[in-house]
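Pilot study result, target chain (367 residues):
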Amino acid sequence: MKSRILLLVIMSWVSMHGFAQQEEEMVFSEKTFDFGTIKEEDGAAVHQFSFINKGLQPIKISSVKASCGCTTPDWTKEEVKPGETGFIQARYDTHNRPGSFNKSLTVMLEGQPAPVRLYIRGNVTPLRESMEEDLPTSMGKLRVKYRSFNMGKVLTSEEPTTKKFDVYNSGSEPIVFEKEYVAPEFIKLKFNPQVLLPKESGEIEIIYEGKTNNNLGFNSDNVTFYTDEDGDDATKSISVYATVMEYFPPLSQEDLAEAPRLKISSPVHDFGKIKQGEKVTTSFQLYNSGKTELKIREAKSNCSCAEASVKKDNLKPGESTEVKITFNSNGRRGNQQKSVTIFSNDPTASAQRVTVKAYVEAEGEFK
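Predicted structure:
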């Protein structure tokens, strides 16, 4: 037993002594290298770790193994004599590897049991797509990302919401945007530049006046603009999406304490299994838990198959009413989930949702 313990102690001492000797003999300029931010399109990133043999015996590298197949090592193959220098090279392949990386190289020396480890790290910015790939939708020679331009959330404030969308001229002739366009009164267009040169990028700026529209909830509007291209290519039709929300000016804590509050009891109802073509109805209770009058602006469904109606629009503090929802399963089958958004003048939660669910059985499905 004592001889076994003694053997372990000796082996541990030899290992530690060998590692310390190895560290003392093989001196690197650095053991970690940070490439920083590099571009994928620039190709492989290469760094060479240099070392000097400060020992009394030659050093020979037997192997270098990378922690990942993305890193290819190279090294000095011949012996490095005392006082001479050698290298270990790390080549990191950036292709299809966007994002940060942290890799290691394990260096083994002949006659030394303990390895030396070197590290590389950095961040790869992804390869930029060509304009044709980035803007895949063609409208004549004009390219856009989508024919639908999404404005996101738009408030009914005095200030309109503005958003810019990239366009690209893929043709060999300039594209001139005409000043005239067809759009609802609350949507304005600007073209920058007005004349888009071949292979040049530009922007279509959409100015959306939520206060003028004042149609709360999701909106989809058609807009047509014109260019000087020939034939049908001169007319461009797009859809402009926006979710219009009521604007509330900043309120003090005192004002919020006096504000109306909309509460909805059990905002989800499951009709269970129903037959195809069947109409089913349920209602949800709406309650004003605030201290001033609650005004129900609108109850808007996300599907024509679910009709919503509110019994009473104005609720005094403590009053309640109901929103009735009728789901028409005609032409539908399987799991269904539809929602109705209740818009009110509750400044803390002006848009709240109720949901109805059902499983629509096709004719003869469960006989």
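One observation from the pilot: The longest helix spans residues 2-25. A full batch analysis is planned for the follow-on phase.
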